[in-house]
Amino acid sequence: MRGKFLLLVLLVVSLPGLISAESGEKLWLRYVPVSETVLDDYSTLDNIYAEGESPVINVAKEELLRALEGMTGMDVEINKKLSGSSVYLGVGLHEKLELPGIEEHLNTCGDEGFVIREIGGEKGLRIVITANTDAGVLYGTFAFIRKLQNEEEIQGLDIVEAPKYQHRLLNHWDNLDGTVERGYAGHSIWWNRERSFDDLKEDYVVYARANASVGINGTVLNNVNANPDVLTDEYIEKFARFAEVLRPYNIKVYMSVNFSSPAIIGNLEDSDPLKDEVREWWKNKVKEIYDEIPDFGGFLVKANSEGQPGPQDYGRTHADGANMLAEALEPYNGIVMWRAFVYAPSGDDRAKQAYKEFVPLDGEFHENVIVQVKNGPVDFQPREPFSPVFGAMEHTPLMIEFQITQEYLGFSNHLAYLPTMQKETFESDTYVNGAGSTVAKATDGSLFDQKHTAIAGVANIGRDTNWTGHHFAQANWFAFGRLAWDHTLRADEIGREWLGMTFSNDSAFVKPTLNIMMRSREAVVNYMTPLGLHHLMGWSHHHGPEPWTEIEDARPDWLPKYYHKASKDGIGFDRSTSGSDAVSQYEEPLASMYNNPQTCPENLILWFHHLPWNYTMSSGLSLWDELCYHYYDGVEEVRLMQKKWDRLDGFIDAERFEHVQHKLKIQSREAEWWRDACLLYFQTFSEMSIPPELERPVHDLEELKKIKFDMTHHN
Amino acid sequence: MRGKFLLLVLLVVSLPGLISAESGEKLWLRYVPVSETVLDDYSTLDNIYAEGESPVINVAKEELLRALEGMTGMDVEINKKLSGSSVYLGVGLHEKLELPGIEEHLNTCGDEGFVIREIGGEKGLRIVITANTDAGVLYGTFAFIRKLQNEEEIQGLDIVEAPKYQHRLLNHWDNLDGTVERGYAGHSIWWNRERSFDDLKEDYVVYARANASVGINGTVLNNVNANPDVLTDEYIEKFARFAEVLRPYNIKVYMSVNFSSPAIIGNLEDSDPLKDEVREWWKNKVKEIYDEIPDFGGFLVKANSEGQPGPQDYGRTHADGANMLAEALEPYNGIVMWRAFVYAPSGDDRAKQAYKEFVPLDGEFHENVIVQVKNGPVDFQPREPFSPVFGAMEHTPLMIEFQITQEYLGFSNHLAYLPTMQKETFESDTYVNGAGSTVAKATDGSLFDQKHTAIAGVANIGRDTNWTGHHFAQANWFAFGRLAWDHTLRADEIGREWLGMTFSNDSAFVKPTLNIMMRSREAVVNYMTPLGLHHLMGWSHHHGPEPWTEIEDARPDWLPKYYHKASKDGIGFDRSTSGSDAVSQYEEPLASMYNNPQTCPENLILWFHHLPWNYTMSSGLSLWDELCYHYYDGVEEVRLMQKKWDRLDGFIDAERFEHVQHKLKIQSREAEWWRDACLLYFQTFSEMSIPPELERPVHDLEELKKIKFDMTHHN
């Protein structure tokens, strides 16, 4: 058996200079040869037995075949019989193979969980992957592949897994004209393509495999700022075609709908959710959809938010609107995801408004409505406290909406590994049922009884060859899926998995690269918005720093000054009880802790407090000096990233190495830009010096203020 | 006497926050209040006696009056009698005052030297400033003012000075259309002005005072790439008007002439210098000039150089051409300054050509011809060895041409204090008459007997309010004059003088600022062209790095590749005996020293040698690593400049402080640009890594290559 590995091993070992170029198009599903140390172990895995013939099982079987052959160089066979096989896939196999102890495991696996067990044999390792459904088997297969590619120990493997959330969705903010709102990796993969669907099918299969590999089981194919046209026959048919290609990968399609659709495309007088003809229109429309897409997932709705229509246009509540849609979808087990991202221009502190609008409606939503809440109370900033809505609506399923696309974290130009941020949200304690009532528990069904649990991530996917613009942005797609599956996974574990699959298992590469990733999000916070600052970015396009922006007649809550409130007397948004009182939307002891600058976490201090420039921080430094140090630390961290990365030249293919190197240069320059822009601007108020031991700014405030971008769509 | 200082002192001491804004328009002649510690000493200097009534003496008297009143706040009187005066200015005063020991001093003072002596008296200090001429008295007066403003000890003062060079000239490369070739401080102060001469006279007086204050006694008012129109009546009249305003300041005007003028504006058949009608034309033209400007200085000629016409167009030599003009000027004591800046596009190593063309002509020039030689053999690079022409023409007066305008040292955007570079030239030992035969001695008449000695600096002056674009570029104008007067002065002494006059005498300001200045030129060398590299700048405009430039059909010796010769096998220009043999133009032991990379100074090693990337430098580093360290050191030094400068906030007026701060930011960014451009480009040949402990590049080579400027004139 060793013989047939020899040539392969020689090639890999002797030609390091010829590591083949890679475009990133295969994502983390490259299936490249594993190292010799594990090849021997894997050598028996050359014979797959798969139970059943469903499309899902066939996908699992083919994926495993492809993976094993790629990773080991062996010819792997598909066997039709149990005997003589070494990898078994399928529902009920534990019975056929008479394996004890698995049935009990399967009782905890639900619809999508799986069991993987190494059962040994005369010739070496044998593996069983089983589940209650073919979907579970598919996920188990991908989990097994991941372990192989990560060169983990297979012998004695005994794994039982089940996802924490039922609905694990990507949200594509893709417009029907092909642009992507907040997309930084090219135009939409779904819409306005010049090539035929059949022509693109291979791409969609890669997309589907990637999602299935990390457990994503749903995808919203159009922007939450929804074009009513999606509900026309033409688009329903298109959705149906996408559903068809995604179905074997256990991925449901969902649709963002415009609340005014009945009026706009249905020619009704209006879209009042309490009117019978409106309700009827939706019921008919839903039936039309399910006629084409029997496993259609449901609707995502952005209503009465940032100019979108909604039930309040007719004096109705969000519950009225959501429930109307829920009733239409209910017969088909469809769900409504109703976004809580609402705020009025002239109202109270923007950070308080979702809570104020939605919490009073708790208990009024239909059971197949899930309220979708952004992780923080404002808008996907590099750091926010968790949204106080979490935990505050005991009788309403809530789903966290994370943003995978880096609208506020450097677009696809900055390396920012997001799981550290997402873990911060998951693990935040709401205290609603006492200590330990984390946001994760308040949303995954373990704290409150709820029929549906869900989670969504706003996708960072576009037509770029590498899918996400920055190679490391692929990690955020991967990691979102992994955390949606199991929010208890550590960010570094997930990063390690991704690196092993995407680049290399060589610890000399993995360790420093993981270090770059794990420190990256805090670097972004530091050079953009440290100490709880937020929303300092450029108008409209959100690229680069513009804490000074003044736009005539602009909504005040779209301007950075609304948030930083810098003046001669200090900086920060007073959300204490003597300010906007946003602190009181949190349970005790959080409310008191946030309310007092002495106990408020310093990484959020300017979120909750307006403090004088000479306020003494825990470091003993003045607030101004502390702010300077954070901005400079951010820049230094990016320079360190560059140094670490450059030392890794030769460990991976030159193509991706140089692409990342190029992006890090942009990040380094833009980090300096952010630092100088923010500090020089705030300095006009603080009138204090940047500590003399720090490097000097290299930009002039007046010159930075002149920078203007024209990029409604950055695709 | 103390009483009348009180208010002034109170104002200065009690209102540090109100240091008045300054535009730099007064240059180093601000005459601001001196500190209390010296005021008492200066208190008797309130009565000036001036001998004579010449315009020059009047200038001296008025300047001293203005200076003393400004610096002390006293009312100073002009006395008509010797008795009762405390400052005496004029020729022959030592006799009137019966002062012993001065006559002997005056014997060493020549036409322009002076004696300053503190002669005491009942009421306190008394000062005598005398000389053999009123011009000498003028220079003595400015020297005395400088000492006062620098708050030097006056008691017991006993100074005897005489200039090292007779002709101390600025060369203005000003075109008649008002643009300035290699000018970075606005358009020409002389030409194409929209305002009337009378209107501008005040500006010219400031210019004249500034030059007189540092001993500059001649100025060439038009570009060496000369427009023949300067010899028309219209322009001769304009020159005459300028001469009139400059005359009281002992400054002669000179003219750059086009060698083809007889043919172009004289309607002669050609301009062959051996033709009688051509020679006659020049004689008549010179007479016309002297009729208008009796003290006209002479001609500066760029002939057969970079496309300019010259005697070689007619098969004649440079000597033939220069002598023709010299004969025309000789009756009026005018001089010809004939530039040796010649090189043919397809000839030998450019660095050798001036020597090859001119040294054979030694002895053939008329005695009022001075050959003007750029300090280095190529072209005003941040570092070059001295030109081998120096010392090699025993029978020909040679004058050094320095460039004050920073064509290759960052324009008016980089702080680069040039005296450290000029001192390097002055002190370079040519060894032509044994050790100690410095370039200074080979040009100032102490090594060879010569009727004329001279020196020229290409001016950095334009219509900008502060005259030179960068406030610190004023120092280069100041320092050029000081070194032309006395090349033995130390660069730091001169810098100290300039800082005291221009900014402050506070040592807390002066020390770090002087440190910035003294280290600045080496910083530029490091981030632009370390280790003897040269001519890596952008095509035509010479702004920024373009070591890669390829221009179709361009003269090869105008392209950086001609000079750096980077390839896989190494970098540098082999000028050793096995290369172009430029080394052999130098005397021993220099020739041998330069010829051997082991003995060649490392700061010139790539000027003289092409070395492999892994060549071991004296540091033990490879050439590549050493090169990297130099480029990074350059950037770090600029960052240090920024830090040092920022600590000085409050010591000087905010206007100039912030202007310099702004310029340093540009310099910091551009230093990084140079570093990245050169290293990333050279790296494509060396294929070696930038040492991992160094910061990473922040630019991409391909992006830098795309930068294109359109700036024929940067005015």
Largest sheet of chain A: 8 strands, parallel, barrel
- What's the average pLDDT of chain A? 94
Radius of gyration of chain A: 26 Å
End-to-end span of chain A in angstroms? 50 Å
- Give the C-level CATH assignment of the largest domain in chain A: Alpha Beta
Helix coverage percent of chain A: 25-40%
Oligomer class? homodimer
Proper CATH architecture of the largest domain in chain A = Alpha-Beta Barrel
Gross morphology of chain A is globular
Low-pLDDT ranges of chain A: 1-19
Fold-level CATH name of the largest domain in chain A: TIM Barrel
Separate helix tally of chain A: 23
Number of DSSP E strands of chain A:
14
Number of structural domains of chain A? 3
CATH superfamily of the largest domain in chain A: Glycosidases
Notes on the structure:
- 2 copies of one chain form a homodimer.
- Chain A is α/β, with parallel strands linked by helices.
- Chain A has 3 domains: 2-161, Chitobiase, domain 2 (2-Layer Sandwich); 167-502, TIM Barrel (Alpha-Beta Barrel), CATH 3.20.20.80; 526-573 and 610-714, Alpha-d-glucuronidase, C-terminal Domain.
- The first copy, chain A, is 38% helix and 9% strand.
- An 8-stranded parallel beta barrel of chain A has the order 7-8-9-10-11-12-13-14. In chain A, strands 2-1-3-5-4-6 form a 6-stranded mixed beta sheet.
- Residues 1-19 of chain A have low confidence and may be disordered.
- The A-B interface holds A 639, 642-643, 645-647, 649, 662, 664-665, 668-669, 672, 689-690, 692-700 and B 639, 642-643, 645-647, 649, 662, 664-665, 668-669, 672, 689-690, 692-700.
